Amino acid sequence: MAPPDYSAQVLREPPVKVTLQPSNHPYLNGAWTPLREEVTVEELPVIEGAIPTDIDGIYIRNTENPVHQPLGRYHPFDGDGMLHQVSFSGGRASYRNRFIRTRGFEAEQEAERALWGGLMDGPGVSTRPGFGAHGRLKDASSTDVVVHRSQALTTFYQCGEAYALDAETLEAEGIAPWVPLDGISAHPKVDLETGELLFFNYSKHAPFMHYGVVDPAGKLVHYVPVPLPGPRLPHDMAFTKNWSILNDFPLFWDAELLKKDIHVARQHPLPSRFALIPRHGTPDQIRWFEAAPTYVLHFLNAWEEGDEVIMDGYFQHNPMPAPLKNADGYGHMMAYVDEHSFKPKLHRWRFNLATGETHEQSLDDRILEFGTYNQRMSGHPYRYAYSTTTKPGWFLFNGFVKHDLETGESWSLTLPEGRYASEAPFAPRVNASSEDDGYLVSFIIDENRGTSECILVDARDIEAGPVCRLALPHKISSGTHAYWVERVHLPR
Ligand SMILES: [Fe+2]
Asked: Does the keyword section mention Transcription (predicted)?
């Protein structure tokens, strides 16, 4: 096969300034090797299959690409955020990737060196005040990306400022003007039915959490405290038509060490708590529910049925894993990003608004996380969930599992050794006839060939493997989250 033709690709100039030196760091090599070039390709070459004409929208992924030599010890979530976007329409696909030019990124480009320490560093490493709940970190905006009002909004996992980029061109459009002083957490939620964006933030000062709603015009119309007993580390939220669901898990910073500005998460002998607040509710309307102790990184869908609010997510069976052995001093970090260490499993919580009781059940015994579903079902009963599997010992996605939550059936697709996926949101087929009529969209990092691809998998038959493979112009780095937006939700 002839090599892909990239004669039409355009490199963004000038290139970013880089000082990071080669090392044997487990998350700066292989599929986590940082990428620095920024490229636009108007038409991606097809490697296998054909681009379906019934997929119309944008896939965006956020990845970690540190450019400067770290001041202390590098953690894979410290990297500078970079968006990779593929825009599908009419059987064609374009690609572009851009660094997220955060205030921290720009300051370090000007200084030509790192100015902030990272997650694994203690006090005294950062040279400037930091951002978010932690307070000493650079807001790299490298965790998640959602699309609201035709803008890609990038977020940082311990709260940050939310940077806006035009979803189609990836032109920078600055910090989202509605973001409050305490920032927003990594996972704001877009309700496609109402056009609203729902979010929360958390901090080390009372009331420790806020919840907010941004309207379809981009205005912050609701922002209320959700009082907690102290600083917490919530990561994700869920919503139904009428309720937003926040959480207070017993894994949070050690209070005594926090007084010395040392941030170490500990599991405390407390239950999990979930806060149900009406979409535009006030603090006095919050309904708290207790549940089995755990920590949850990510939730799937939530909905209402009679007196119950039902929510799916990934219950961690070992939220405080032991360090991995033989990891060159990185064992603690590596365990905390290794799903086979913290053991998340598909789980369902049922909150009864009439009795105040919680009922919960495990839905699958496999290690699964980073799930997606048809976003058209958000807040409503749904049937199909798509989870990812990971390579034991590593934060690398090596396959997908589809669940039929009505029948309990499941199907899986495991990638060949050396091929790693990204989070794979569901893209509904144009004029879809059923909930699972669409594609899973993912990037692949191929360590065997040193290349990357964008793949489409028919969600009705994931075991058949990709129906289309597109060649990306460079090997991308791995990262955390990705998003799909249908073109009908990109008004201009
Ligand atoms: Fe996340």
From this structure: no
Q: Which uninterrupted H or E stretch holds 97?
A: strand 92-99
Nearest to 480 by CA among 13, 140, 170, 246: 140
Tokens of 202: 């958390």
**What's the gap in Å between 338 CA and the centre of ligand 1?**
14
What contacts 320, CB < 8 A, 6 or more positions away? 251, 265, 266, 267, 342
Span 259-276, average pLDDT? 94
Nearest one of 161, 141, 159 to 60, comparing CA atoms: 141
Question: Chain centroid to CA 349: how far?
Answer: 22
Q: What is the pLDDT of residues 350-408, one digit of tens each?
A: 999 999 999 999 999 999 999 999 999 999 999 999 999 999 999 999 999 999 999 99
| Distance, CA of 140 to CA of 131 (rounded, Å) | 9
CA of 91 to the centre of ligand 1 (A): 31
Separate counts of helices (H) and strands (E) for the chain: 4, 34
Q: How much distance in Å is there from the Cα of 185 to the middle of ligand 1? A: 9
Q: Please tell me the pTM assigned to this model.
A: 0.96
Q: Which domains does the chain possess? A: 10-489 (2.120.10.30)
Structure tokens that stand for 201 in this block? 């933030």
Q: How far is the CA of 431 from the centre of ligand 1 (A)?
A: 30
Is 235 labelled as part of a ligand binding site? yes
- In the three-class reduction of DSSP (H, G, I as helix; E, B as strand; rest coil), residue 145 is classed as strand
Query: How many other C-beta atoms are found inside a 10 Å radius of the C-beta of residue 377?
Result: 17
Complete DSSP assignment for 280-305: T--GGG-EEEEE-S---S-EEEEEEE
For tokens 């009705």, what's the residue? Answer: 460
Contact 281, 267 (CB under 8 A): no
Say if CB 42 and CB 77 are below 8 A apart: no
